[in-house]
Each structure stands twice: as C-alpha cells, then as structure tokens.
Inverse folding.
C-alpha cells in the first residue's frame, strides 16, 4: 500500500524539515520511502515543497502526482496542489496563514491554526512542528515516537536544544487533531 504526501509552503517555514523528519521516521519504521525536496530560487520566501512516498514495497517513482495527503502552509501552495489531491485524500491546512477556501468536496480538510497556537506557546518558530504533529496524528502513517526519534537524530549536536520546543509543537498539533477541534 503506497501513500504519498506533499508538504508545501514558502521557504523558511520549515517545509523541507517536516518532510525530511517524516521520511526518516517512516524509514526507521521499516517502510520504503522516497523524499523529493524542491524549492524556488530564493531560499527564504520563495516556494518550497517536498513529496514523500511511503510503501511496504519498493517504490519505483518518487513523484507524488496524486498525493493522498497534503500539508499546506501558504495560499499559493493550496492553489497549486488542491486539484492534485487524490479523491478521498486529506489536506492539513495552517489556517493561521491560508485564507483561501478549498473548492473541492471530495477531500477531507483539517484546518489547524498553527500560527495562533505557536504564538500562545510563545514560540512562533514551531508552527511547522504543530502542523507535523497534526499530520502524524491525523494520518497515522507513523507514530509520534518515531517522529521524535527522527527529529532527535536530525537536530543532534548544536541544534539539540530545539528538541524541547519541537516536542511541545508536535504534541500541541497532535492533541488538536485528537480533540477533533
């Protein structure tokens, strides 16, 4: 069973980090994965996206032409990817930043006010972790434990101090989805 996910937003929002952490987590779970990052000419403020395919079997194409899931952090990303989502797919939207309404009624929408939640937690830099926690909780493609292990591996060394705030963001996003808010 193959599941494809696209993470999309602007450079600097942590889009590629979310996808990379998810890819590492499912790989550590023993799944086959592909991770394909892409970004515009500008590293910060330009477009950024990545696709992650997860399967129990070997994957022959890294392209997520019809993703089952999308994690959207900007209006341009919603405009670009809304039509590509598989019928019955799920889109996780940072409703603090994305104001465009979804026009399809054949996909599930999970609006997460990640920016507002991050401000309440007094750390606006963790909105991506809030979205990642919401996605992990809502998709059930990996566990929170696997994501935390992957993040610990990614942020070891100088960035190890980020783990406490990353965990706080992940937990907030997961809890938001579990409460069905």
């Amino acid at each position: 069973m193959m599941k494809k996910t696209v993470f999309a937003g602007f450079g600097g929002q942590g889009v590629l980090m979310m996808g990379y952490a998810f890819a590492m987590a499912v790989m550590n779970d023993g799944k086959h994965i592909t991770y394909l990052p892409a970004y515009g000419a500008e590293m910060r403020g330009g477009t950024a996206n990545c696709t992650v395919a997860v399967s129990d079997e070997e994957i022959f194409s890294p392209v997520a032409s019809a993703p089952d899931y999308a994690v959207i952090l900007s209006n341009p990303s919603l405009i670009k990817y809304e039509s590509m989502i598989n019928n019955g797919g799920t889109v996780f939207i940072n409703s603090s930043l994305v104001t465009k309404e979804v026009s399809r009624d054949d996909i599930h929408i999970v609006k997460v006010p990640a920016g507002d939640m991050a401000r309440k937690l007094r750390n606006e830099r963790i909105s991506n972790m809030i979205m990642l926690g919401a996605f992990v909780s809502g998709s059930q493609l990996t566990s929170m434990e696997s994501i935390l292990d992957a993040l610990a591996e990614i942020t070891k060394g100088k960035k190890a101090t980020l783990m406490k705030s990353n965990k706080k963001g992940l937990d907030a996003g997961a809890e938001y989805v579990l409460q069905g808010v």
Observations:
- Strands lie at 3-10, 32-39, 47-55, 69-72, 90-94, 108-112.
- The chain is about 40% helix and 20% strand.
